[in-house]
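User: ok so my PI wants both of these folded by tonight, can you help

Assistant: No problem, let's get them done. Here's the first:
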Amino acid sequence: MAVDLPMIAPIANQVLTPVSANGRGVPAVFQTIRTIRTSPLGGDSLLSRSVRAISLDRTLFEEVGNDKHAMPQAIILLMAVAIATGIGTLDNGNIGDVGPASTLVIIGWFVWSSLVFLVSRKFRGFAPRPTEGVTTSRADWSSIARVMAFAQAPGLLRIFGLVSGLGLVAAMAALLWQFAAMTVGLRAVMRYESHRRALALLAIAFTPYLIIVGSISFLMVTT
């Protein structure tokens, strides 16, 4: 069920065609992102927050980390990423891969969030930093989970796996972008002074993450 690249070439050309913005050529896709972010209809809507997450807006992650009512939006976005990931696997012609691929996105998010939370609690060097006027210095699991969910937003790129020849490129771009988003997000919610500490936190959680999610993936494939 792969989509041939020539079929989407006119669409891509239209999206990336420079448009006039203050006298300078700006690709239409970036102009659209700018419009959504600055629109009065944006605010804390799911669309606006998703775009801000994709653009690695640190204030977005601070916002959702502190907003206890943002979990429904986080779950909806996560489900959209899961669906996009599943659809992206249709390039190999095996519809049976859609369910497992989508499910692993949800499982992966839960495992990531839990491991990050546990490491931040067990190792003092990774504990959230206190903020002036805030009595607690610890981000709870739900705060981390919301941030990690929004950090998965770049995973929407995996839907381009439907395009013949773009599956691996889309998957790698999404993965690297998600790591960048998680790094920015964790720095924000943990109130770290630098991205290096957030990246180190992810690095420590990465090995157990691979073991757990890899084992679940193996069981899903073999059963």
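One down. Here's the second:
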Amino acid sequence: MKKIILIILLMLFINNCSQNNLDINNPEIRRAASKINIIDLDSNIPKKYQILSEVRGVSYGGQKTTTLGEFNTPPASKEEAYRELKLNAARVNADAIINVFCEDTGVDWSRNCWTTMVCIGDAIKIDE
């Protein structure tokens, strides 16, 4: 029983808190993502558009050291979640993202992250 507990604890501390693979090395996706706007005011939403898909962006952060209990990675951020949101929208050839909602979902035990920010929105194609 002690061995099982030791193995579980070891696995938790070996697992590093890290960001998702954002695929920024794909130049087409990166260029398209840089042009996508996140429209956060209802008054700015275009009159004619089609929703292509729901997209999600997640930021992880704040892994704690085992000895001092201090964070050794930056906390999750809305900006990082927005970057992933834009990259995912670019993958479906979206022009913009609307109806974005973000939430700090707290600890992600599977990644050993103490802060998690999740943003979800609708990737749209604007009709001209």
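The chain has one domain: 16-126. The chain has a mean pLDDT of 82. Good luck tonight!
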